[in-house]
Amino acid sequence: MSAQSQANPAAYGGYRPRRSVLYMPSSNERALEKAKTLAVDALILDLEDAVAPDAKEQARENACAAAKSGDYGNRELTIRVNGIGTQWHDADLAAASAAGPDGIVVPKVNSADEVRQLVAAMEAAGAPEHTKLWAMIETPVAILHAEEIARASDRLAVFVMGTNDLVKELGAEHVPGRAPIQSSLQLAILGARAAGIAIVDGVFNHVKDADGFAAECRQGRELGFDGKTLIHPGQVDACNAAFAPSEDEVANAREIIAAFESAQAEGRGVVTVNGRMIENLHVDTARKVLATAEAIAARTA
Ligand SMILES: CC(C)(COP(=O)(O)OP(=O)(O)OC[C@H]1O[C@@H](n2cnc3c(N)ncnc32)[C@H](O)[C@@H]1OP(=O)(O)O)[C@@H](O)C(=O)NCCC(=O)NCCSC(=O)C[C@H](O)C(=O)O
Ligand SMILES: [Mg+2]
Fold first, then answer.
1. Which residues surround ligand 1 with Cβ inside 6 Å?
2. Does the annotation list 80 as a binding residue?
3. Residue 209 assigned ligand-binding role
4. Of 194, 222, 242, which residue constitutes the final position of a domain?
5. Alpha-carbon gap, residue 50 to 170, rounded angstroms
6. Which residue has the CA at smallest separation from atom 11 of ligand 1?
7. What does the pLDDT look like over 194-232, one tens digit per residue?
8. If you ran DSSP here, which 8-state letter would residue 172 be given?
């Protein structure tokens, strides 16, 4: 399945849910164990910020062993390597490529050239076809080049927002509603959607603020993100609920499709459902809602 097909409604049979994407330090063996029991769509086994320098090599071994283990069911399993130019990057990328996870997450990707170099290095290290590149978008230069980064390779499947680094680089502040980074979030989404790849939102740092977290999930969904990155198991359920179609949305989608098909059979191209105009494009959206719900049900079965 190409990266494009994952976000393309025309190929929604191949859609992969990425509502909840949980980071965990690969040095934390308890967290690696716990992750096997969590209802997340995807995992990021971290070698970067959550791992102290002295623990980097053990963390790399743990992450690669986890990727090869087959113990994580149908959760999408990725490894976040240390950034380009760091002392650990080349060995991380080679080891992760050879381990063959579903994805390799690379921090601070800043250009299309970097994407092509990363893909070449993954291929040289023997990354299997199913191992996709996930690029973190977390600097001003990446935001300003989001579309060309997203289009740089078919192997690039997902953008991951790094909102902590972005806020730091902008000299901005973390505030409820995220006004200081709204334009950045939207430019990243525009770039991802123009290229037909998936995009997941950044993390919410306050693990005990359930209301703030729910509000940020809602905002992320409204903006168009496929899901959100998480830092704690306590964030998983609310996130899955926020990024899944509700029962009402599924029922409404069915009603729209049925009404439109009846109208078409009578030679009409437009109809109203519950007082709202429905055209072909709304039917596409309704089909996407159903396909998303089906894909979630299949992943969690
Ligand atoms: C934030 C934490 C340090 C909190 O840890 P802790 O105090 O141990 O949490 P709890 O005691 O509540 O944990 C309860 C149990 O859950 C397990 N646990 C905790 N976190 C995780 C996790 N992320 N994945 C899996 N399991 C987890 C604990 O082991 C406990 O298990 P048990 O004892 O068996 O009941 C901690 O949550 C944490 O380390 N989170 C991840 C931090 C991280 O990965 N940060 C880096 C990514 S964020 C980032 O860099 C974003 C980006 O780059 C940007 O710029 O924005
Ligand atoms: Mg970061």
1. 22-25, 30-31, 34-35, 46, 49-50, 138, 162-165, 202-203, 207, 231-233
2. yes
3. no
4. 242
5. 22
6. 232
7. 999 999 999 999 999 999 999 999 999 999 999 999 999
8. -
Tell how far the Cα of 48 is from the centroid of ligand 1, in angstroms: 14
228 and 292 fall within a common domain? no
Residue 272 is given by DSSP the state E
Q: Is the pLDDT of residue 1 over 80?
A: no
Segment 124-132 mean pLDDT? 97
Are 231 and 265 contained in the same domain?
A: no
- Per-residue pLDDT band for 41 (boundaries 50, 70, 90) equals very high
Instruction: Indicate which residue's Cα is closest to atom 4 of ligand 1.
Output: 232
Does 165 belong to an annotated binding site?
yes
Q: Do residues 188 and 266 share a domain?
A: no
How much is the ipTM here?
0.97
Residue type, 66: A
**CATH number for position 33:** 3.20.20.60
Residues 113-118: contacts with CB under 8 Å, at least 24 apart: 113/152, 114/84, 114/149, 115/149, 115/152, 115/153, 115/156, 116/152, 116/153, 118/84, 118/93
Name which residue sits closest to atom 9 of ligand 1, judged by CA: 232
